[in-house]
Amino acid sequence: MPHRRLRMVAVSHLAVLSLCQGVALAQPAPPQGRPGQQAQPRPGQQAPAAVPTTTPPTAAAAPAPMPQRIEVNDPALAPVPPPARTLASWNDARAMIEQRSVEFAIAVQEVARAEGVARRALAAALPSLDARGDVNHELAGGGAETLPPGIARPPGEPTGAFQDVEDAPTTLRASLTLRQPVLAPRAWYGIGTARRSVDVAKLSLEDRRRITVGAVADAVVSIVTAERVSEINRVGLRSALERLELTRRRERLGTGTKLDVVRAEQDVALARATLVSGDEALRKAREALGAVLGERGEVGVPQGFSLNAIAAEVQSQCAEARADQRADVRAARAELEIAERNLTDAKLAFAPYVDLSSTLSAQTSLGDESTRRARSWGWSIGAVLTVPIWDGGARYGDLQINRAAVEQQRVRLGAVERTAGLETTQAVRGVAVAEQSRAVAEQSRDLARETARLTQVAFEAGTATSFDLVESGRRQREAELDLAVREFEVVKAKITALLASASCR
């Protein structure tokens, strides 16, 4: 029995020595030299005092060999291929927003369209000048035919005869007409309404710029977060593969079981699945940035892209304001004013209007002397008063439509104001929540890392099971991922708080 215990202790010590050689936790080896020779002091360093030893120089023990790290190779450990295009800086992203962003380009054209509508409304109150010209040529004309005396008309011949085509006259007419609205209350009122529509379009463009800048900043932060998560996932997969190799070695030495190997393989499979989903999230984040910037395919950011620089650039472009002064709130107020003006415009459809018209005309005829007419010209001026009386009830229908539009816009304005206030409050509170979550995640990461280290030591000493080892490693990976996400959420929360009530002109 004593010999059997000694044999089991020896086998256990050999197993622990093999496991210790497979991990990178060893201390650096002492400097080598000849037996009995002391290490030479560095320049500027005093030589240590001689310490008496009871071991003879010839019996000095040889230094222990350096433990070797386990080498693992797996195709999944290769990083995700870089995207086709990479943003050089935030200024590059801003230039792409103004040039390629679909939503931003649509908002810009909406301003141009509103300006065109305003110009058309102004034209209804300005004078108009029209020129008109026409040419008339008589192809044939009927008339009474005079017969010479003593000549009778043949039987059956019609009494009328057609003139020759060559003798038909050609008449030229030209006119120039000037019209000026003298009394046009509806047209004059429509000019102010159209100008307010231009203001609404510009406010919508400002709000679209704020939303687009926020979307780009959010996409950039998501890419940086996904890249960090992908890196952590690869570190976790490598650690899982190293634990699997350690477990297999322990099984070959006879100190482990097949169940330990299966548990380690399950841990590797879980780490591999997390890696695959993380890489796909990175690709989707790059594609989302490309979609916001109007690019096809993936758009990435460089490794040294500073998130703090993003916050500084966004703050330089967008000024902080109150929630009730945000662009979309001001646009909603302007749209309510336009709806009320449209109601007034429908009422002005009942008002009479007066147009002043002046026409200058000239006429001449071409032909022989018998058909030529004297040249003539004329100049006339007149005023037309129009009083709308009945149009089948269309104006009453316009009144009803515009009253309903006013009430709808009042409801929309209230909803926009509440949404802006709520978003601003939540965004400001979100910064404090994100910082608190990051502190909690950092503490959990430290605890998980220490738990994994102690479990590794206990497993090597034989006091912990493979289940404890795998579970501690899994929790450490989750804690690392959670901390990485929380760190980037702080930056995202600060940008969101800035843009929640900002004015980006």
UniProtKB/TrEMBL annotation:
Major localization class: membrane
GO cellular component, one term: cell outer membrane
Region (Disordered): 27-63
Molecular function GO labels: efflux transmembrane transporter activity; porin activity
The entry's keywords: Cell outer membrane, Coiled coil, Lipoprotein, Membrane, Signal, Transmembrane, Transmembrane beta strand, Transport
Organism superkingdom: Bacteria
Location within or outside the cell: Cell outer membrane
Signal peptide per UniProt: 1-26
Taxonomic source organism: Sorangium cellulosum (strain So ce56)
Protein name: Probable outer membrane efflux lipoprotein
Coiled coil: 322-349
Biased composition (Low complexity): 34-63
Family membership noted in the UniProt record: Belongs to the outer membrane factor (OMF) (TC 1.B.17) family.
